Each structure stands twice: as C-alpha cells, then as structure tokens.
Amino acid sequence: MAGVRKPMEKLRISKNDSTDQQQSRRLFCLEGASNKRLEPRKTAALKRSDVYIGNLPSEIVEDQIMQLFAAFEPVKVRKVVSGQKCYAFVDVGNAENVALAVSHLNNTFYNGRRLVVRNLGKLRDSAIPTESAQVELPALEKVDKDSGGGSKTLSISQPVKDGGQASYAVPLEMRSLMLVQMLTSCFKDIGWIGESRKVQGEVGLMVMDTFPHAPFFWAMNLTPETYVKMCQLFNALSVVTKEQPFLKKDEMQRGQRCMAEFPGEDGEWNRCWIIDVVQSRLILFYVDSGSSACVPVTSVKSLDNDEFWAVPPLVQPFVLEQGVMGNRKMDGTILKGSIVGFHEAEPHILTFSIADED
User: Fold this and answer.
1) Exposed e or buried b for every residue in 102-137, given b needs 16+ CB within 10 A?
2) Which residue, 147, 185, 280, 318, is most buried by CB atoms nearer than 10 A?
3) What pTM does this model have?
4) Residue-wise pLDDT tens digits, 269-305
C-alpha cells in the first residue's frame, strides 16, 4: 500500500437467501427517484425510539435494514409487507439516534428507491400521515442557510470575504449511507464504526486525500495503534500479492472486494471496493486512503478472503472547522490540531481545527 506506507515511513513512528446477499453488496443508486407516499400504519406498540422507513423493496430482509441503520445503533427491526408496499419500524434506542437516522437516511436512495424516513415520536404527536397524504421530498443537496441550527442537511456553510456563506455538499464517498454499504460489504462486522465519534482532543493527522476548494478530507490519525494495524495489513498483503489471481471479467461487479495498485505508485497493492463497472474500466474506492480511481479491468486482483479484511480502514473522513483545503497537493501532509466535534449532518465526519502556528 504505497499510497499509505511511504508517507508513514517518513515519520519514523515507533512501532437467508443468496439473492438477498448479492443485493446487499450492490451500490446504492443515485438516480431514479419516485415520489412515494407514506404508508398507513398502526400506532400500537410503537415507541419514541422507533424510526419509520418506507418505500423499501419487498425483497429486502431485516438484516439488510439493520445494516442501513448500523451507524445509529439499531436494537430491533420489524418489516411489514402490505400488497406491493414494504416498510419497516426500527428501534434505535434513543432520541438522539432517531434524529441522526432521519437526517442521514431520509430522501437517500436504495436500489433506485427514494427512502422515506420519519421520526415516529413527532408523527404521533401530530396527525399520522396516511396513504392520501403527500410527503414532501426536498432535494438531496438542499442547503441549510441557518448554520446555527434548524434542520440538518448534507452540506456545510463557511464564511467568505464578502460576509456571505459558501456552501459545500458532503462528498458522496463520505456519506453514511454509502459508507455503511461499503464497510458492511468489505468488513462484515462494522461495530467499530461508532468509535470514531469518541476521538477528541489534540491529534496529528496525515492527509490522504482532499476535495479541491472544499473543507472535507480523508486522513489517518497518527497513533501507535494505527501504526500497528498498518503493519499488520502490509504484512498480510505483501505475502499474497504475487499469488493472488487477477479478477475475471464475469467476477467483477458492484460491491466486490478486491486489490489494486495505488494510482501513481509502483509495487504495492491496496485494498479496494468496486463502485461500478463501466465497459473495460472499473471505478474503485481505495479503502485505506479514501481515494477513488478509474482503472482497467485487467489491473485488479481478487481479495475476497475475510483474513485480509480483519483490520479496519486506516483512514477516517474529516472536515475543517474553518477554511478549505485549497487545490494544492496535500497527500502526505501532516496537520496538527484538535478534534472539536463532528459534522451536524454526518456525525462520523469529525470536525478538525488546525493548531495556530507559533
């Protein structure tokens, strides 16, 4: 994994159904919305920690619904099929998780369907939507102009010189719905994902990938634990790189785990996830750097053994508290500062404040 290993070396840190399973590996579609209406339901036995999710495909299983809510600590799910309609009630334990689940998942897409996610506590306090009640579906990239509160969105606002606000949409690769899908497909058990919100205080971050003129970036938190995990991963990959077979064309599909050389580097291979197959090219997400790339189908090797996916990703998504990353090459740059919170609409994205230079 040259894209990760080489900058680190400079630091010298001390050392039930197969069809359903295939569907769970497919990338969430980003187009093809349909304005569905909220299905009628009975309110008996529902709790304030329950979340309603509608417009689900009828073939979805409860385990897949639990995966959708994995970042919000789901306790229980109850799927309901009524004719051609399918919806579910998910208990996420507390009001905070309810609010986060609604803000993250409402109006996102799953297998071409726009999901309808609602807070049942609020619905119970007011009129319950029925089959005839039209549900308003705001645009996915709607910007919350009031950065001090209000409804949570998939954007962040930053002050600009003229006193206005410049808004930045959260990159797709960082959104929880795609990350949960990708991480579940790669690592199976993603119980560790909630640990990212517990990181706080002074840290040193090695930047792995940035978004030009935006505040978002992928970085590695430079800790002894991260270094040990990186060594474990490098050792496992170095042993099998030459032995691993290249993927055959009929084996390539969305959601497939694999390995590929890091763009612009020679020799070492990285863990990857196939975002899409486009004729003779593959769009890959490099799990341990946060980078995406389009590569020839002939350049990707198999890496589907769980042994190689025992180490969690080496990088996390971050957003600057102030300013943007700029357009210059930042890979390998070390930033010192503090983690001061998390993005209001995507709580797994930690907010980072750069330390003042003396």
Assistant:
1) bbbbbbbbbeebbbbbbbbbebeeeeebeeeeebee
2) 318
3) 0.60
4) 899 999 988 888 999 999 998 988 888 989 999 998 8
